[in-house]
User: Fold this.
Amino acid sequence: DAKTTQPPSMDCAEGRAANLPCNHSTISGNEYVYWYRQIHSQGPQYIIHGLKNNETNEMASLIITEDRKSSTLILPHATLRDTAVYYCIVNYGQNFVFGPGTRLSVLP
Amino acid sequence: DTGVSQDPRHKITKRGQNVTFRCDPISEHNRLYWYRQTLGQGPEFLTYFQNEAQLEKSRLLSDRFSAERPKGSFSTLEIQRTEQGDSAMYLCASSSFGTWKKETQYFGPGTRLLVL
Assistant:
């Protein structure tokens, strides 16, 4: 079973920030938090990962709470092309266990 | 293109036939994973290799499934005597596994299998 829980779906207006939450209350101290997304009929695309510090790259920002039991992926200016299923995964050098993810719909 | 590639991208076969899929990982990645994804679900782990050694197999990988990575580079996944329930997207991913076990997996585009 996946070690994370995510809302099944979210909407976001184009140009606004999309904030996708993830709960991982049983995360262990050495497990990383990864985010991937999957656009229809394509393979999952890596977005970002982190251990305990907040991270930012050209795609997104990852905010991890101090107790590491939850995190938020932030897409700062969502576009229509960001419509996808977003997966949050915790992992320490093992096969990924995907949950059902959050289906993000960016609306014009 | 230096990403993970998979061939073929689509495969239609009749029940009972054998099929083989190929995955070419990112160059020098030592780990290679196979996942299966059915409609509306997240990917499910099947098996993975570290170099040429197959280190783990999921209980989803029945006796009809076999995977190889003979030289630690490309991998093949064969399904014998296909069944309609095998219809799915088969995804390959590769990673560079290191000391800190920080392991970003990069996925290929997948092979979509339809068994009639």
Notes: The beta strands of chain A are 9-13, 18-23, 32-38, 45-50, 55-56, 61-64, 70-75, 84-91, 102-107. Chain A has no helices and nine strands.
